[in-house]
Protein backbone atom coordinates (compact mmCIF):
# COMPACT_ATOMS: atom_id res chain seq x y z
CA UNK A 1 0.00 0.00 0.00
CA UNK A 2 1.42 3.37 -1.05
CA UNK A 3 0.97 6.36 1.21
CA UNK A 4 1.55 10.06 0.69
CA UNK A 5 4.90 11.76 1.17
CA UNK A 6 3.43 13.81 4.04
CA UNK A 7 2.33 10.69 5.91
CA UNK A 8 5.66 9.00 5.17
CA UNK A 9 7.52 11.96 6.66
CA UNK A 10 5.26 11.85 9.72
CA UNK A 11 5.95 8.12 10.12
CA UNK A 12 9.71 8.71 9.95
CA UNK A 13 9.54 11.56 12.46
CA UNK A 14 7.53 9.48 14.95
CA UNK A 15 9.78 6.46 14.47
CA UNK A 16 12.95 8.47 15.04
CA UNK A 17 11.40 9.85 18.23
CA UNK A 18 11.10 6.32 19.56
CA UNK A 19 7.57 5.22 18.64
CA UNK A 20 6.93 1.59 17.72
CA UNK A 21 6.17 0.88 14.02
CA UNK A 22 3.18 -1.21 15.14
CA UNK A 23 1.78 1.65 17.22
CA UNK A 24 2.24 4.05 14.29
CA UNK A 25 0.52 1.61 11.92
CA UNK A 26 -2.43 1.18 14.26
CA UNK A 27 -2.75 4.92 14.72
CA UNK A 28 -2.86 5.76 11.01
CA UNK A 29 -4.90 2.69 10.06
CA UNK A 30 -2.46 0.76 7.89
CA UNK A 31 -0.78 -2.64 8.13
CA UNK A 32 2.46 -2.88 10.11
CA UNK A 33 4.34 -4.13 7.03
CA UNK A 34 3.37 -0.95 5.17
CA UNK A 35 5.03 1.19 7.83
CA UNK A 36 8.06 -1.10 7.91
CA UNK A 37 8.39 -0.93 4.10
CA UNK A 38 8.51 2.87 4.08
CA UNK A 39 10.93 2.98 7.03
CA UNK A 40 13.25 0.56 5.24
CA UNK A 41 12.89 2.35 1.90
CA UNK A 42 13.90 5.69 3.39
CA UNK A 43 16.70 4.22 5.57
CA UNK A 44 14.91 5.47 8.69
CA UNK A 45 15.90 2.27 10.51
CA UNK A 46 19.57 3.11 10.06
CA UNK A 47 18.91 6.70 11.08
CA UNK A 48 17.20 5.55 14.30
CA UNK A 49 20.24 3.46 15.23
CA UNK A 50 22.40 6.56 14.86
CA UNK A 51 19.83 8.61 16.80
CA UNK A 52 19.92 6.23 19.78
CA UNK A 53 23.70 5.97 19.60
CA UNK A 54 23.93 9.76 20.02
CA UNK A 55 21.38 9.62 22.85
CA UNK A 56 23.52 7.01 24.57
CA UNK A 57 26.59 9.21 24.27
CA UNK A 58 24.66 12.18 25.67
CA UNK A 59 23.42 10.05 28.57
CA UNK A 60 26.93 8.90 29.41
CA UNK A 61 28.29 12.46 29.30
CA UNK A 62 25.54 13.73 31.62
CA UNK A 63 26.01 10.93 34.12
CA UNK A 64 29.77 11.36 34.20
CA UNK A 65 29.40 15.12 34.75
CA UNK A 66 27.17 14.48 37.76
CA UNK A 67 30.12 12.70 39.28
CA UNK A 68 30.82 9.49 41.10
CA UNK A 69 30.07 11.05 44.48
CA UNK A 70 26.38 11.63 43.65
CA UNK A 71 25.85 8.61 41.45
CA UNK A 72 28.23 6.14 43.04
CA UNK A 73 25.82 3.24 42.63
CA UNK A 74 25.75 3.66 38.87
CA UNK A 75 29.53 3.37 38.69
CA UNK A 76 29.61 0.15 40.68
CA UNK A 77 29.23 -3.37 39.33
CA UNK A 78 25.71 -4.08 38.18
CA UNK A 79 25.80 -7.60 39.64
CA UNK A 80 23.46 -6.48 42.44
CA UNK A 81 20.71 -5.89 39.88
CA UNK A 82 21.17 -8.99 37.72
CA UNK A 83 18.11 -11.23 37.79
CA UNK A 84 18.25 -15.00 37.24
CA UNK A 85 16.92 -16.30 33.93
CA UNK A 86 13.69 -18.22 34.46
CA UNK A 87 13.70 -20.24 31.25
CA UNK A 88 15.84 -20.80 28.17
CA UNK A 89 15.70 -22.51 24.79
CA UNK A 90 18.19 -24.22 22.52
CA UNK A 91 18.36 -23.55 18.77
CA UNK A 92 16.66 -26.84 17.89
CA UNK A 93 13.66 -26.31 20.16
CA UNK A 94 10.38 -25.60 18.40
CA UNK A 95 8.32 -22.44 18.43
CA UNK A 96 5.68 -24.46 20.29
CA UNK A 97 8.26 -24.91 23.08
CA UNK A 98 8.81 -21.16 23.09
CA UNK A 99 5.09 -20.41 23.20
CA UNK A 100 4.66 -22.61 26.26
CA UNK A 101 7.25 -20.49 28.05
CA UNK A 102 5.76 -17.20 26.84
CA UNK A 103 2.33 -18.21 28.08
CA UNK A 104 3.87 -18.05 31.57
CA UNK A 105 4.35 -14.30 31.07
CA UNK A 106 7.96 -14.40 29.84
CA UNK A 107 8.37 -12.18 26.78
CA UNK A 108 12.13 -12.49 26.17
CA UNK A 109 13.95 -15.85 26.18
CA UNK A 110 17.67 -16.56 25.76
CA UNK A 111 18.69 -19.25 23.29
CA UNK A 112 21.63 -21.25 24.63
CA UNK A 113 24.18 -23.60 23.14
CA UNK A 114 26.75 -25.12 25.52
CA UNK A 115 25.53 -22.68 28.20
CA UNK A 116 26.43 -19.69 26.01
CA UNK A 117 23.91 -17.23 24.57
CA UNK A 118 23.60 -17.56 20.80
CA UNK A 119 20.29 -15.78 20.28
CA UNK A 120 17.20 -14.13 21.70
CA UNK A 121 13.58 -14.96 20.98
CA UNK A 122 10.92 -12.44 21.95
CA UNK A 123 7.17 -12.17 21.65
CA UNK A 124 7.76 -9.54 18.96
CA UNK A 125 9.73 -12.10 16.92
CA UNK A 126 6.71 -14.41 17.10
CA UNK A 127 4.33 -11.66 16.01
CA UNK A 128 6.65 -10.48 13.23
CA UNK A 129 6.73 -13.98 11.73
CA UNK A 130 3.10 -14.83 12.42
CA UNK A 131 2.13 -15.58 8.82
CA UNK A 132 5.02 -17.98 8.34
CA UNK A 133 4.43 -19.67 11.68
CA UNK A 134 0.78 -20.49 11.10
CA UNK A 135 1.19 -21.84 7.56
CA UNK A 136 2.65 -25.14 6.43
CA UNK A 137 3.32 -28.38 8.27
CA UNK A 138 7.06 -27.99 8.70
CA UNK A 139 8.33 -27.98 12.29
CA UNK A 140 9.35 -24.43 13.16
CA UNK A 141 12.67 -24.34 15.00
CA UNK A 142 13.72 -21.46 17.23
CA UNK A 143 17.02 -20.98 15.39
CA UNK A 144 15.17 -19.70 12.30
CA UNK A 145 13.37 -16.93 14.21
CA UNK A 146 15.76 -15.83 16.96
CA UNK A 147 17.69 -12.57 16.71
CA UNK A 148 21.24 -11.68 17.64
CA UNK A 149 21.61 -11.45 21.44
CA UNK A 150 22.76 -8.24 23.14
CA UNK A 151 25.21 -9.26 25.85
CA UNK A 152 27.13 -7.49 28.60
CA UNK A 153 29.79 -8.71 31.02
CA UNK A 154 28.91 -8.91 34.72
CA UNK A 155 31.86 -6.69 35.65
CA UNK A 156 30.41 -3.71 33.76
CA UNK A 157 28.57 -0.93 35.59
CA UNK A 158 25.05 0.41 35.23
CA UNK A 159 26.13 3.36 33.10
CA UNK A 160 27.64 0.98 30.57
CA UNK A 161 24.48 -1.15 30.67
CA UNK A 162 22.26 1.89 30.07
CA UNK A 163 24.45 3.05 27.19
CA UNK A 164 24.34 -0.37 25.52
CA UNK A 165 20.55 -0.56 25.85
CA UNK A 166 20.24 2.84 24.17
CA UNK A 167 22.70 1.99 21.40
CA UNK A 168 20.97 -1.29 20.58
CA UNK A 169 17.45 0.00 21.33
CA UNK A 170 16.61 -3.03 23.48
CA UNK A 171 14.68 -3.44 26.72
CA UNK A 172 17.18 -5.72 28.40
CA UNK A 173 20.60 -7.37 28.26
CA UNK A 174 21.88 -10.88 28.86
CA UNK A 175 24.64 -10.85 31.48
CA UNK A 176 27.58 -13.25 31.15
CA UNK A 177 30.51 -14.16 33.39
CA UNK A 178 34.20 -14.05 32.48
CA UNK A 179 33.87 -17.48 30.86
CA UNK A 180 31.12 -16.26 28.54
CA UNK A 181 28.36 -18.24 30.25
CA UNK A 182 24.95 -16.76 30.99
CA UNK A 183 24.35 -15.81 34.63
CA UNK A 184 21.23 -13.66 34.29
CA UNK A 185 19.67 -10.58 32.73
CA UNK A 186 19.23 -6.88 33.46
CA UNK A 187 16.31 -4.82 32.17
CA UNK A 188 15.29 -1.20 31.79
CA UNK A 189 13.11 -1.69 34.87
CA UNK A 190 16.16 -2.81 36.86
CA UNK A 191 17.96 0.39 35.85
CA UNK A 192 14.97 2.47 36.91
CA UNK A 193 15.06 0.72 40.30
CA UNK A 194 18.72 1.66 40.67
CA UNK A 195 17.93 5.31 39.95
CA UNK A 196 15.02 5.18 42.42
CA UNK A 197 17.44 3.92 45.09
CA UNK A 198 19.60 6.97 44.49
CA UNK A 199 16.69 9.35 44.89
CA UNK A 200 15.51 8.02 48.26
Structural class: alpha+beta
CATH top level label of the largest domain? Alpha Beta
Taken from the alpha-carbon principal axes, the silhouette is: flat
Task: Give the name of the CATH architecture of the largest domain.
Answer: Roll
Counting structural domains, the number is: 2
Query: How would a textbook summarize the main sheet?
Result: 3 strands, mixed
The tally of beta strands, per DSSP, is: 5
Oligomeric description of these chains: single chain
Which blocks of ≥5 consecutive residues have pLDDT under 50? none
The CATH homology group name of the largest domain: CBS-domain
| Strands in their spatial order, largest beta sheet | 3-4-5
Tally of alpha and pi helices = 10
DSSP strand content: 5-15%
Gyration radius, in Å? 19 Å
CATH fold type of the largest domain: CBS-domain
What's the rounded overall pLDDT mean? 82
Helix fraction? Answer: 40-55%
Instruction: List SSEs in N-to-C order.
Output: HHHHHHEEHHEHEEH
| Separation of the first and last Cα atoms | 51 Å
Q: Secondary-structure blueprint of this entry?
A:
Elements: H1 5-16, H2 21-28, H3 32-41, H4 44-66, H5 72-75, H6 95-102, E1 108-113, E2 116-122, H7 123-128, H8 130-133, E3 151-153, H9 158-168, E4 172-176, E5 182-187, H10 188-199
Helix pairs in contact: 2-3, 4-9
Amino acid sequence: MLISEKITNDIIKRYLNGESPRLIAKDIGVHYQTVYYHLKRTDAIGQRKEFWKKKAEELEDKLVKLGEKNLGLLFKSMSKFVKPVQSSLNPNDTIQDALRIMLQGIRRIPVLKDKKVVGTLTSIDIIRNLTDLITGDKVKEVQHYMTEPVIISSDKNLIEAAKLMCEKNVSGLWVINKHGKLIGSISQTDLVCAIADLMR
